[in-house]
Design brief:
The protein folds into 2 domains: 151 residues, VC0802-like (2-Layer Sandwich); 82 residues, no CATH class. Helices cover 48% and strands 18% of the residues. Strand 2 and strand 3 form a beta hairpin. Helix 4 packs across helix 5 and helix 7 runs antiparallel to helix 8. It is flat, with a radius of gyration of 28 Å. About 2% of the residues have low confidence. One of its GO terms (molecular function) is aspartate kinase activity. InterPro entries: ACT-like_dom_sf, ACT_Aspartokinase, ACT_dom. Its EC number is 2.7.2.4.
Length: 307
C-alpha cells in the first residue's frame, strides 16, 4: 500500500466469456474511468491548457439593506442588462456579490451602469484585471489541482482577487492583476503542465524499473492486472462491435427487398436506427447501411489487431 500514490481504482472480477453475453454487466466503460479521473490506460488525467483574458473589471457590490438575495440579484442583473454588459465570473453571498466583467462596451456606458448599481448598494471597482483559467475535462475529479494552482500563484507573489469554478466543470478561474497576467501564465504552465508531464514520465520509469525482487514482483502484478482489465475491455468492445455488424448486415439484407421499413427498427443497434432516421428513401437507407457496415468492419478489424 502506498499512501502517497495516486490511488487505486478497483473493478469486480468477471468470469471469462461473460462479456459475450448480452445485457451482462460490462467492465468499466471509458465514461466511468474518465469520471473518476483516469484515462483509458488507467493513468491520472491532468489539466490540458491555461488561458488569460485581459481588459477585465471587478465589481464588488454590498447591499444597502438586508434584502432577500433574489431581489438583490434581480436588480443587479437588470441594471447590467440595460447597458448590455455580460458577466464572466461571479461569486455571491446573500447580500454581497463580486463580478468579473469584460469591458467590451464604451467606458461611459460602464460608468452609467456603476452609477445605477450604487442605488442598490455600495460599489467598489477594480480596473485593469485579468481572468486566469486552468482548463481540463471534469476538473472536480483532479484532486488537489486547485490547491496546487493557488499555491503556485502565491509563491510567485501573485494575489488572487476572486475565484470561480463553472458548472461545466472544465475549468477553474481566478482574477488577478492584468500586469501580472503573463507571469501567472508562465508559472502555471511550468508547474502544472510542463512539470506534470515530466512527473508522468518519472512515474512510468519508476513502475518499469525496480531495485529488488519484491518491487519487481509488485510491479509485474500491477502490470498484469492492468493488462487483464484492458483485455477485458477490448473483448467486450469486440463483442459489441460484432453485434452491431450483425444488426447492420441483417438490416441491409432486409432492405434489398426495395422498401424502407415504415417504422423505425427496434431491438437492434443504434447505428441501424440512425440510418433509418436520416435516410430519405429505400435507396438512401441501403446506401447508409452499406457505409456503416464498412465502418463497422474496419473498427472490428482494428480491435482484433489490438487483441
Amino acid at each position: 500500500m502506498n499512501p502517497q500514490g495516486a490511488g487505486t481504482i478497483i473493478f469486480p472480477d468477471q468470469p471469462s466469456g461473460m462479456c459475450a453475453l448480452k445485457r451482462n454487466t460490462p467492465p468499466p466503460s471509458s465514461k466511468v474511468l474518465l469520471e473518476n479521473g483516469y484515462q483509458l490506460d488507467l493513468s491520472r488525467r491532468h489539466p490540458t491548457a491555461v488561458t488569460i483574458k485581459d481588459n477585465v473589471w471587478v465589481l464588488n457590490i454590498h447591499s444597502n439593506r438586508k434584502s432577500v438575495s433574489h431581489g438583490f440579484f434581480e436588480q443587479i442583473f437588470s441594471t447590467l442588462d440595460r447597458y448590455g454588459i455580460a458577466v464572466d465570473l461571479i461569486s455571491t453571498s446573500e447580500v454581497h456579490i463580486s463580478m468579473a466583467l469584460s469591458v467590451n462596451v464604451i467606458e461611459a456606458e460602464m460608468e452609467k451602469a456603476i452609477e445605477g448599481l450604487r442605488l442598490i448598494g455600495t460599489v467598489s471597482v477594480s480596473k485593469d484585471m485579468a481572468i486566469l483559467s486552468l482548463v481540463g475535462k471534469q476538473m472536480k475529479n483532479m484532486v488537489g489541482i486547485s490547491g496546487r494552482m493557488f499555491s503556485t500563484l502565491a509563491k510567485a507573489g501573485i494575489n488572487i482577487e476572486m475565484i470561480s469554478q463553472g458548472a461545466s466543470e472544465i475549468n477553474i478561474s481566478c482574477v488577478i492583476l492584468e500586469r501580472q497576467a503573463i507571469q501567472a501564465l508562465n508559472v502555471i504552465h511550468t508547474e502544472l503542465l510542463s512539470n506534470v508531464a515530466e512527473e508522468d514520465e518519472d512515474t512510468t520509469a519508476k513502475m518499469t524499473t525496480t531495485d529488488d525482487d519484491d518491487t519487481d514482483k509488485e510491479s509485474k502484478k500491477k502490470h498484469d492486472h492492468h493488462a487483464k482489465d484492458r483485455e477485458g475491455m477490448l473483448q467486450c468492445a469486440l463483442a459489441r462491435r460484432s453485434e452491431e455488424l450483425h444488426d447492420l448486415s441483417q438490416a441491409f439484407e432486409e432492405a434489398l427487398t426495395g422498401k424502407k421499413p415504415l417504422d423505425p427498427p427496434t431491438g437492434c443497434s443504434v447505428a441501424v436506427q440512425r440510418a433509418w432516421v436520416h435516410s430519405s428513401d429505400a435507396h438512401d437507407y441501403r446506401d447508409r447501411l452499406e457505409v456503416l457496415i464498412d465502418e463497422a468492419e474496419a473498427r472490428l478489424e482494428k480491435l482484433e489487431e489490438r487483441l
